[in-house]
Each structure stands twice: as structure tokens, then as C-alpha cells.
Automatic annotation (TrEMBL):
It comes from the Eukaryota. SUPFAM superfamilies: DNA/RNA polymerases. This is Zinc finger protein. InterPro entries: DNA/RNA_pol_sf, Retrovirus_Pol_polyprotein, Rev_trsase/Diguanyl_cyclase, RT_dom. PANTHER family: PROTEIN CBG26694, PROTEIN NYNRIN-LIKE. CDD domains: RT_LTR. Transmembrane segments: none annotated. Residues 218-395 form the Reverse transcriptase domain. Pfam families: RVT_1.
Length: 448
């Protein structure tokens, strides 16, 4: 079976000899609301879709003898001459019937999709673990001003002052993106010919989740149904926190978009003059990009397509060219004239040496956020703390140091074995080069 939504090759375990198993850790595969453990094996595959040695996932369930997913060299389309039998699957992925008759040359084979979720060390798995598998979402948490975090070192009177200020501007504290009134995103193209792409296949196990996600975005007026002549495909990206994010592949569209960059302040300059500061407050804009509206005549250019629907963005879509520049300009405009407030895209940091200055400036910042219709994530805000984590650094108590998780990430990084892995590791530690002058010795490695 050929399945464009699968991330590799899946084979029935009984077709694999013990000598072909690699002995590597099992993989967790998700099929709908169930999960399966799979072993890794190296097999010689000969099918109408792919013929070479591949690493496959072996499962005991007889979903199909062999499923060929997205691999280099695998055919995406197939005809009657290539494949005479096919498996038809309905909405219930656990039901399958074999149709002995040949499909027409234009027929597509509908298949269940297996999605590799993560590597695991152990071999024990039960049904309750399905609830912890990553899903799209993160909506509807109904965050309020009561979810704000405050510095542990604050006195009762200091905390009361901050709570009163926050309550006065409670409307800005929400996980729902606002609609900024001070900036709009503009799209200038180098070609007047509409750019249109076919939709990418979405794993069957995630199809309904993706539909639900777009329905929520539509309800929040982030997107709307479209009849635009433009269309970019949807792609699902796994985030570092394990969740899945629905993104739009604007790479081809970006190639015909005129660049309009906005300079960003490097961290070294952001942290200058903070050595004496005693109070820090950090704010995180709620889905920052989605708070900036798209210019009306440019909305149709943001259109994207799924397997069953066509939408367009009313706000800035993540991944489109100049989106970061537009958001940065909006934030710079917001902070213009306010002392001791720095920004990095959608993160804001207020820092002062005295408590009085901190309270006064924080109130002014909240006022401007409300006037511009910005909202901030309550659970990600920290007010009046003596130490704060920002852009991978820890600030406070007269020092600028590395976050503990960054130190552990560097210490536990696997030994690089290829040029690409060496450069990836050097990119990680190079961000903190001021903490390790010895990194200058790595220059020859970049030239390898």
C-alpha cells in the first residue's frame, strides 16, 4: 500500500526475520485513538512504489502487509499497470476490505496513516498512555488576571500594588489574540500571476483534529472561507514541547513576495545596562502574529487549502514573509518612549533598579497595550521578580547567566558524528559565546 501521509515504511512483524531487526529502541506509532509499539528492522523492499533497502517499523497488527510512506524515491501516484489490487478504507480505520478488481488509472488508494510520535526507551505501554499523546489545540483555557505569577521575594504590600494595577487592566490578560489597531500586514508581490498549489496529505489520525482547529480559528475570526485564486498547502509541524502545530507552507509564495525587513536588536545589546536592575516583569503576547490584521486587499493572497476546504487569513499567518518584521514594528511602535522596556518579537521585558519606577512604568505599559488592543498570555507573565529567564538567559541579582536547562542541554548533547551535526552543536553553543571564549578555537570546524 502507498500512503503519502505515513512518515516511513511499516511492515507486518511476521514478514521480518529476527536477523533483520536492528535492536534499536521501539517507536510509538499512533493510529486514530490507539497506539502501537514498533520495532526497527532493515529490509530489502521491492514494490511498485519503492525498491531498495530501507529501515522499517515492524508492528504485530495486520493493518496491512506493507505500507510505503514518504521516502526519497517513493512514487506518489500509481496506475492500473503498477498495482492491480488495492485496499479501500472507510472512516473507521480499523475496518478494511480488499477489492479484487483493478482501479482505474486515475484512482487513488485510500489508506490508514501511521504517525511516528516519539522514541521511547521502555517496552511497556497501556491504553491510558493514549491520553498523553500530543494533540493540536491549546485553546479555550480561559486565562484571567488571576493566573498571573508574581515574584517570590515581593512583600505583601508590593504584591498588592501589582495586583491592583493588573486588575485595572484585566482586559489585556487573555489567551485569545486581540486585534491590533496600530499596524497592518502588507503583502507586495513580484508577480501578478496567482500562485496555487495542491493540498498536502494529512495523516488520517489527525484529519478531524485539523478540521476542529480551523473551525476554532474561524470562530475567532483569524481565518475565513475563501474563493481566492491563491492557495498554499497545510503542513503539520511537531513543536519542541511535543505538541503539533498546523502551519501553512508558504515557501513558494514567499519567493514571489517582496522582502521588507525590520532590524532586530541582538541579545548582547538588549541586556546592556541591566546589571544593577532589581525588578523584572516579563510579558508574552497571545499568539502575537495573529494579533496583527492583514491589509484588506492582501487577504486573498494568504489563502491556503486543505484536502476539503479553502481558507484565507484575516490576520498575519505564521511563516509568511515579513510577518516577523510587521510584528516587530508594531511592538516597537507600542514601546516608543517607554524607558527600561525591551522586546524580542512577541516577548516583552520590563526592568528597573527601583520599585517605584517599576510600578509606574508597568502601569504605562499596560495602558498602551489596552489602547492598541494587544492581549498577553497570563500564564506566561511574571511580574515583579528579582530574577527572570529571557531569551535563554537568566537575569537578576547583578548577574547575567545561562538558564539551567541550557547548561544541561549542552552537557547532555550527543557527540556529533557528521559535519551537519558539528555545525548544529556549534550553533547552539555559539549563541552563548560570551560565556566561553574557548569557542574561538572552533573556527576551523566551521571550515571543514
Amino acid at each position: 500500500m502507498r500512503d503519502n501521509g505515513c512518515k516511513g515504511v511499516v511492515i507486518w512483524r511476521q514478514l521480518v526475520d529476527a536477523g533483520q531487526l536492528t535492536g534499536e529502541c521501539c517507536l510509538l506509532l499512533r493510529i486514530g485513538n490507539t497506539a502501537l509499539l514498533a520495532e526497527k528492522a532493515v529490509i530489502n523492499l521491492s514494490t511498485p512504489f519503492l525498491s531498495r533497502e530501507v529501515k522499517a517499523f515492524c508492528i504485530s497488527d495486520t493493518i496491512c502487509y506493507v505500507i510505503v510512506g514518504n521516502l526519497d524515491g517513493a512514487r506518489s501516484y500509481y496506475t492500473e499497470e503498477l498495482y492491480k489490487g488495492y485496499i479501500a478504507r472507510d472512516q473507521d480505520i480499523h475496518q478494511a476490505t480488499v477489492d479484487e478488481g483493478p482501479p482505474t488509472s486515475s484512482s487513488a488508494i485510500s489508506a490508514v496513516t501511521l504517525t511516528v510520535i516519539e522514541d521511547i526507551e521502555g517496552e511497556h505501554f497501556n491504553d491510558s498512555d493514549c491520553e498523553t499523546l500530543p494533540e493540536l489545540g491549546g485553546w479555550g483555557s480561559n486565562e484571567t488576571v488571576n493566573d498571573l505569577q508574581y515574584g517570590d521575594q515581593l512583600t505583601q504590600d508590593q504584591r498588592r500594588q501589582l495586583e491592583e494595577i493588573a486588575s485595572s487592566y484585566s482586559s489585556i490578560f487573555s489567551d485569545r489574540p486581540g486585534t491590533v489597531s496600530t499596524e497592518e500586514h502588507r503583502i507586495e508581490l513580484t508577480s501578478s500571476t496567482p500562485m496555487r498549489q495542491r493540498p498536502y496529505p494529512v495523516p488520517c489520525a489527525m484529519t478531524q483534529t485539523v478540521r476542529d482547529e480551523f473551525k476554532k480559528m474561524e470562530d475567532l475570526e483569524i481565518i475565513r472561507k475563501s474563493s481566492s485564486t491563491y492557495s498554499s498547502p497545510v503542513v503539520i509541524v511537531k513543536r519542541k514541547d511535543g505538541c503539533n502545530r498546523v502551519c501553512i507552507d508558504y515557501r513558494r509564495f514567499n519567493k514571489i513576495t517582496t522582502s521588507n525587513p525590520q532590524p532586530m536588536t541582538p541579545p548582547a545589546d538588549i541586556f546592556k545596562g541591566m546589571e544593577k536592575d532589581q525588578y523584572f516583569s516579563k510579558l508574552d503576547l497571545s499568539k502575537g502574529y495573529w494579533q496583527i490584521p492583514a491589509r484588506k486587499k492582501d487577504i486573498l493572497k494568504t489563502a491556503f487549502v486543505t484536502m476539503d476546504c479553502h481558507y484565507e487569513f484575516l490576520r498575519i499567518p505564521f511563516g509568511i514573509m515579513n510577518s516577523g518584521a510587521t510584528l516587530t514594528r508594531a511592538v516597537k511602535k507600542l514601546l516608543c518612549g517607554i524607558d527600561s522596556v525591551v522586546d524580542s518579537i512577541d516577548d516583552l521585558l520590563k526592568h528597573t533598579e527601583t520599585w517605584e519606577a517599576h510600578v509606574e512604568t508597568l502601569g504605562e505599559l499596560f495602558r498602551r497595550l489596552r489602547e492598541a488592543n494587544f492581549t498577553v498570555r497570563t500564564v506566561k507573565c511574571v511580574l515583579g521578580s528579582s530574577t527572570i529567564d529571557f531569551l535563554g538567559y537568566r537575569l537578576g541579582q547583578g548577574t547575567i547567566s545561562l538558564q539551567d536547562k541550557i547548561v544541561q542541554k549542552v552537557r547532555n548533547a550527543p557527540r556529533p558524528k557528521t559535519k551537519k551535526e558539528v555545525r548544529a552543536f556549534l550553533g547552539l553553543v555559539g549563541y552563548y559565546k560570551e560565556f566561553g571564549p574557548i569557542l574561538l578555537r572552533s573556527l576551523p570546524l566551521f571550515r571543514t
